[in-house]
Amino acid sequence: MIYNPASGRKVDHKSTIHNCLFSFGIEYEIYETKGNLDCMNKIMNLEIDNYSAIVPVGGDGTFHEAINGLMRRKDGKKIPMGFLPNGSGDDLAGGLDMPIGDVNMGLEYIGKGDVIKLDVIKILIDHESEQELDDKIASNPSLKKEDYLRYSMINCSLCISANCARNAAPMKPYIGHHAYTIQTAIEIIKKREEKFNIFVDKESLA
C-alpha cells in the first residue's frame, strides 16, 4: 500500500484498509508518501519481487505517479496494481465503474484477486524516441526525464479540457471536484482560440 495522506479528500482510511485486508488474510506493508513524485520514485526503486501487488491510495495524481513509477522501472518488471480512490475527482476509478471515494469497493476487488488489463498511453514530448531523450539526458544531466516522458491511464487532451484540468488544480483542495465545473465556465467565457498541427507517422492531418 502506497498511501498519500495529502490526497484530495484527506480521509484517513488506514484502519478500514487494515481491518478489511486482515479479514481477507492478506499481509501487507504501508508506505506514506512525503511529497511530490515520492510515489513514483518509491515504485521505480521497489524490491518488486517481494510483493504480489502494488496498491496506491489517493487521487488521480497519486495513480498517475504510480503508473509512471511502474512503467519506468529499469528492470521492466511488472506486477498487478490496485487502486483505492481517495481523491477529489477520482476519474480513473470512475472509468472503472467505481463510485468516487469508494475505498470499500476497491478493497473488495483486491480481496477477490480479480485482475483486468488496461491500456496505458505513452507520451513523448519534443523527442522522436525515448533513446534520443536518454542520449540528451546523458549529455545534460540537469534534464529530467519525467519532464519529457509520461504515461497516462486516464486521458490526454488539448485546449479547453486541458486548460480546465490545469487551472482547476489550485481550487481542488477547497471545493473538490466542483473546481472543474467552475473552471469550465471560466474557459468557455474566455473564448480563446488555439491552433495546432497533428501528425500521424510524420504525415500531417491538416
| Uncertain stretches of 5 or more adjacent residues | none
Oligomerization state: single chain
Shape: globular
- How many E strands? 8
Spatial order of strands in the largest sheet = 2-1-3-4
Q: Compute the average pLDDT.
A: 89
The proportion of strand residues reads 5-15%
Q: What is the overall number of helices?
A: 9
Q: What percent of residues adopt helix (DSSP H or I)? A: 25-40%
Main β-sheet: number of strands, strand sense, barrel status? 4 strands, parallel
Could you spell the SSE succession in H and E letters?
Answer: EHEHEHEHHEHEHHHEE
- Briefly note the structural class of the backbone: alpha/beta
Rg is 19 Å
User: How far is it from the N-terminal to the C-terminal residue, by CA?
Assistant: 46 Å
Question: How would you describe the overall organization of this protein?
Answer:
This protein has 206 residues and is an alpha/beta fold. The protein has a 4-stranded parallel sheet. Strands 5-6 form a two-stranded antiparallel ribbon. β3, α3 and β4 form a beta-alpha-beta unit. α2 runs parallel beside α3. The mean pLDDT is 89.
Features:
alpha/beta, globular
SSE blueprint:
Blueprint: E1 2-3, H1 14-24, E2 31-32, H2 38-44, E3 56-58, H3 60-71, E4 84-85, H4 91-95, H5 103-112, E5 121-124, H6 130-139, E6 149-152, H7 159-168, H8 172-175, H9 178-190, E7 199-200, E8 203-204
Parallel strand pairs: 1-2, 1-3, 3-4
Antiparallel strand pairs: 5-6, 7-8
